[in-house]
Amino acid sequence: MKKLIAGNWKMNGSLAANEELLAALAKGLEQRPSCEVAVCVPAPYLMQIQTLKSKSPALAAVAVGGQDVSGHAAGAYTGEVSAAMLKELNCRFVIVGHSERRQYHAETDALVADKTKAALAEGITPIVCVGETLAERDAGRTEEVVKRQLAAVIHTNGHCISEVVVAYEPVWAIGTGKTASPEDAQAVHAVLRAQLKAATDQSGRIKILYGGSMNAANAAALLAQPDINGGLIGGASLKAADFLKIIAAAN
Ligand code: PGA
């Protein structure tokens, strides 16, 4: 299966900075990568990114994604962005259930499952994030937590679960410079893989990404694990040289 390297810009960027970053990516991607590449950008920049893409053949290889989506289709939900809106802006992906949304916006497993459903209804591939906190890991609860988070999404989405991308992002590794060892990450990925296998006979096509301080130096070892099918990259996706090195490691 093709690996997927997805950048999560989080709440970073500006019109000028985005243009610079994409120009540098275009330069590095003149030779089309053999892995899939995506950038998940703040909603106000989706149009800008699509415009820049349309002007650069090298950026054709870069899919665009959102970072969150409403669980509702439309209506009186001030501040929310619907899956239909993301679709209109040609989003191929949307991140759902990122730990920063679970933590700072009190997103529950049920809400994450609804958001996944809303994205799938528009034909957008949700990148569903799961992961344990440091306290949960220290308490030996990693497996229980990620399985509970994924189970909610499976429960709500039934056989459509084969259309999602899963991202395992240990919360303690996000933005901290601490990465799960390739073996520890693989162990959790294997648990998730088994859970997906029990849910659908199409589980073989589901990509499971690793996220959490993946960088140019550690990407190759993580991506070499049998159940790690790509990466969700935060900080390192904001620096073209680093992001390109991760893409190269996945090729
Ligand atoms: P990080 O973020 O690579 O900066 O740790 C990953 C993520 O939160 O998706």
Number of domains: 1
CATH superfamily: Aldolase class I
How does CATH name the architecture? Alpha-Beta Barrel
| Cα-to-Cα separation, first versus last residue | 12 Å
Major sheet strand order = 1-2-3-4-5-6-7-8
List low-pLDDT spans: none
- Per the CATH scheme, the topology name is TIM Barrel
In one word, what is the shape? globular
Helix content: 40-55%
Model description:
With 251 residues, this protein is an alpha/beta fold. The protein has one domain (4-9, 64-70, 79-250): Aldolase class I (TIM Barrel), CATH 3.20.20. It has 10 helices and 8 strands. The protein has helices at 15-28, 46-54, 83-88, 99-104, 109-121, 134-138, 142-157, 182-199, 219-223, 240-250, and strands at residues 4-8, 36-40, 62-66, 93-96, 125-130, 165-168, 208-211, 230-233. Strands 1-2-3-4-5-6-7-8 form an 8-stranded parallel barrel, surrounded by 5 helices. Helix 2 links the parallel strand 2 and strand 3 (62-66). The termini are close together. The relative contact order is 0.16. The site of 2-phosphoglycolic acid (PGA) has 13 residues, from strand 8.
